[in-house]
């Protein structure tokens, strides 16, 4: 500050002044107010003045009186010398009274002769210096006396304090000893009390110990009895398990024997007349044999078979017997048909021969064999079409190639590469996780973020920028993880909240439109987790582990434990609902001129193929209900009359097949599908007017061509 600068300048000027250069003696500073008091007091003659007159003044008279002028001048000059300034007698011995008090010696005379003319020039100066010297001597004596008195006083105080401290220490020691005796007495009392309590507690513990010993003896006897009982139960369980195992071996032997009979029966003549597919029967027979073999293999690894395993094997045996019985009945029927055909041919030959001999009235040929209700018996497919399997395999190959493309990124040990991988995975999966039914206007923001990431633009994730250009394999990795996350959302989110299928599907459809490879990866993940979305029913192969086969069917197997059927159906339902929503929705902000990359035609193909395959218990009913509930309205608007034909086909032809394979404990999905079909049929009876005639024709016409839609096209 400016004021501080001026202050320092002032102090520097004061220090450079004449008074500032003066030196002050430290003794004066210590003496303090006593010096000032002496200076302010009135001057008075000291009691030692007489001594000064007697010893100092006579020396001044030895000088000759004729030299007063020179003496006065010399005394004046001597007064101006530094040696005559009052000081310590140690530094100026010539001016001290002791030196002037011994003039008799030769050295003193010599010194007096030499110093006399220089110091003792003026009586007035000598008087003043003597007074000063005497004052200093008196003051020193007074100070020494005061110091001695102060020291004595301090010694007295120290002795008094020491005596008082000794007395206090004695009192403290007495109190300490008294307290120690009291604590010792209290401690002894506490110890005696504790010993009495310990003796009582010991007696109590002895009593409790005797009581617990009795209880433990009883428990030991009970445990021994329980052990013997468990050993007996274990022995019985092993016997039952061995009996079940022997029964399983017998069942396996019988199943294999029946399978051999089944193979031998297929080699019978007249195979072209059989309505059953021998290859399907043979495949089913091999599956049953593999199922029983898998049960025996699993039980041999884990212990003895359970009653449930035996029941499954018995059902497989019963199904094998039914297959053989149905095949034998079909062979018998084929033989009868062949026999009747031979008889008819012979009859026709006889009639021709008779007609050649003479005219007769011909008889009508019998009608072909029909099933109940006048419908011709037809068997559905067991395997999926070859074109569909090729399409399915192409998608799986594309998915495998994508995984191989970013294998180096996933297996890298570099921390920087790992960080890039984690950031890309978060940037791809977090936006999909944020899609929900209440997202609203955020759907476009989520779509733009995913589209920017796939287009190579940087996006914000976790507070920093992320882009697929950070790694050469980043785009493949993001596309794979994004498709996997979409399918996982259908497996989890849509399975729990059915309405979430539509916002997820509209974003997935928009991304599919702009990035077709993501759509192919979505289909690959969907087909792998839900093979029924192909539709594809994996077959059990010889030598395949049962857990692997269950995984192929879509079940989750963890620690050799298969998930419950309800959870499995819930997951399959979520994925089918997501697929049904994707094929009918389009991104509203995209181009309407381009067609949907995977539109309703694929849904119509899926529905047609699954209706051409044998239904599965509890699975087919669930999938049909979920698929029709989500996109049935869109299919109706697209295909109109053809859709109602399919609904009637399901209700009257396919639904009884589902009912035949549905057990009593799996009626939930069956009842839901039944109610849905009944409500749909009621609505179709009174449709809108433009389609009334066509639907009325559909309800009345039962020809196969009508079910294919050729009648309505002709009309």
From TrEMBL:
<feature type="region of interest" description="Disordered">
    <location>
        <begin position="59"/>
        <end position="122"/>
    </location>
</feature>
<keyword id="KW-0963">Cytoplasm</keyword>
<dbReference type="GO" id="GO:0005543">
    <property type="term" value="F:phospholipid binding"/>
</dbReference>
<keyword id="KW-0175">Coiled coil</keyword>
<dbReference type="Pfam" id="PF07817">
    <property type="entry name" value="GLE1"/>
</dbReference>
<dbReference type="GO" id="GO:0015031">
    <property type="term" value="P:protein transport"/>
</dbReference>
<feature type="coiled-coil region">
    <location>
        <begin position="206"/>
        <end position="268"/>
    </location>
</feature>
<dbReference type="GO" id="GO:0016973">
    <property type="term" value="P:poly(A)+ mRNA export from nucleus"/>
</dbReference>
<dbReference type="GO" id="GO:0005737">
    <property type="term" value="C:cytoplasm"/>
</dbReference>
<feature type="compositionally biased region" description="Basic and acidic residues">
    <location>
        <begin position="332"/>
        <end position="353"/>
    </location>
</feature>
<keyword id="KW-0653">Protein transport</keyword>
<feature type="region of interest" description="Disordered">
    <location>
        <begin position="331"/>
        <end position="377"/>
    </location>
</feature>
<dbReference type="GO" id="GO:0000822">
    <property type="term" value="F:inositol hexakisphosphate binding"/>
</dbReference>
<keyword id="KW-0539">Nucleus</keyword>
<dbReference type="InterPro" id="IPR012476">
    <property type="entry name" value="GLE1"/>
</dbReference>
<comment type="similarity">
    <text>Belongs to the GLE1 family.</text>
</comment>
<keyword id="KW-0811">Translocation</keyword>
<feature type="compositionally biased region" description="Low complexity">
    <location>
        <begin position="66"/>
        <end position="78"/>
    </location>
</feature>
<protein>
    <recommendedName>
        <fullName>mRNA export factor GLE1</fullName>
    </recommendedName>
</protein>
<dbReference type="GO" id="GO:0031369">
    <property type="term" value="F:translation initiation factor binding"/>
</dbReference>
<dbReference type="InterPro" id="IPR038506">
    <property type="entry name" value="GLE1-like_sf"/>
</dbReference>
<dbReference type="GO" id="GO:0044614">
    <property type="term" value="C:nuclear pore cytoplasmic filaments"/>
</dbReference>
<comment type="function">
    <text>Required for the export of mRNAs containing poly(A) tails from the nucleus into the cytoplasm. May be involved in the terminal step of the mRNA transport through the nuclear pore complex (NPC).</text>
</comment>
<keyword id="KW-0509">mRNA transport</keyword>
<keyword id="KW-0906">Nuclear pore complex</keyword>
<feature type="compositionally biased region" description="Low complexity">
    <location>
        <begin position="92"/>
        <end position="103"/>
    </location>
</feature>
<keyword id="KW-0813">Transport</keyword>
